Amino acid sequence: MEKLAIHGGEKAKTVPYGSGKRFGQEELVQLQEALEQNTLFYWTGNKVKMLTNKFAELYGAKYCVAASSGTAAIHVALGALGIGEGDEVITSPITDMGSIIGILYQKAIPVFADLDPHTYNMDAKAIEAKITEKTKAIVVVHLAGNAADMDAIMEVANRHGIKVIEDCAQSYLCYYKGRLAGTIGHIGCFSLNDFKHISAGDGGLLIMNDEETYKTAFRFADKNYNRFGGKMREIKTLAPNYRMNELTAAVALAQLEKLPMICGNRNAFGDALTEGIKDLPGIHPHKVIEGGKSSYWFYLMRLDEEVLGVDRKEYVEALLAEGVACSFGYIPEPVYDYEIFRDNPNCYPGACPVAEKVIVDSVKLPVNEFYTKQDVEEVIKGIRKVTQYFLDRKAK
Ligand SMILES: *Cc1c(COP(=O)(O)O)cnc(C)c1O
Questions:
Q1: What pairing do the DSSP bridges indicate for beta strands 88-91 and 109-112?
Q2: Mean of the per-residue pLDDT values for the chain?
Q3: Which of 68, 69, 71, 244 maximizes ligand 1 atoms within 8 Å of its Cβ, making it the mutation to test the pocket?
Q4: Is 99 close to ligand 1, i.e. is its CB under 6 Å away?
Q5: Residue 293 and residue 309: Cα distance in Å, rounded?
Q6: Which residue from 111, 162, 166, 383 puts its CA 20 to 30 A from 250's CA?
């Protein structure tokens, strides 16, 4: 049995993780051009227009709308699809608050559907079980760079006449059976906050193919002003100001060029990790649906504590001692446990049992585009060593 680092043995991770600079000359050039326009307003400048054109082109979508954040993008999507007071919107219990905020601002009711135990994305059958006559939309979260089972979800949604918003905030260049996540539902939403694959500080993008949806979304992100001709201040319904400014778009334009490298490197790291650990008893790797491609915003594996004879705390402490970066799962409780949902009858302990289990037995491993081949090899080595130690200890 190899001596664990936590017991004084050699660490599996022998060098610091690879790192690098996210921003450079490319962003500076774009920013300078934006400033030289002598306007930073999206309607008079060119950077937001270029960004939305390029993003639509990258995704093969007809239209793209910019917004001030990923949260704003999802709110705009809900507004554009006419979601309002009393409507029910089904979404994931393991996600960022940004998936939910727009639902609440539209006075709609979030309803949480349980997850697939290994992709950690919403399960179509669980979604269908939550559909009522009030259900108007589904916000499908593609968690951590990895696609939900969109064929099954679209089949349910179409059968019930429900709109589908894809929350791709964590999932740039993420593929589902050869198709890009974000292009399968009615609207795809993206985030440019500083923690995502690409950053413009903050910002959001929406893609769609329907012209009416595009126009409604465009107006909804800009006070419902009508910039398509005719009367501009023709305001029938409430909409916020979620405009993106030219500086944000300038940085995002430069970042967009780096997106294929970023997602490619993350995909290679995550897939190599799965290859290296998938035979281990007691470890469930982060599952990618056949024909899909994850851009791994992070890597989430699950422990079978019974098979390993260890609890998550002891496992994580041993892995950390090996020099392998890891933490207890993604979020510490399902979203529906937040105090704000106390009066929502759909929100109670046990509402989504699979999600609750994932939250307590998953281990999160960070992924970054600057990680090296040695990094992935040593992470695998660390996981194998620690796992084998606990398996052997259990067998004794
Ligand atoms: C980050 C994130 C959002 C919100 O994006 P912001 O730009 O931070 O507003 C929404 N949904 C998910 C799944 C996210 O990870």
A1: parallel
A2: 98
A3: 71
A4: yes
A5: 33
A6: 166
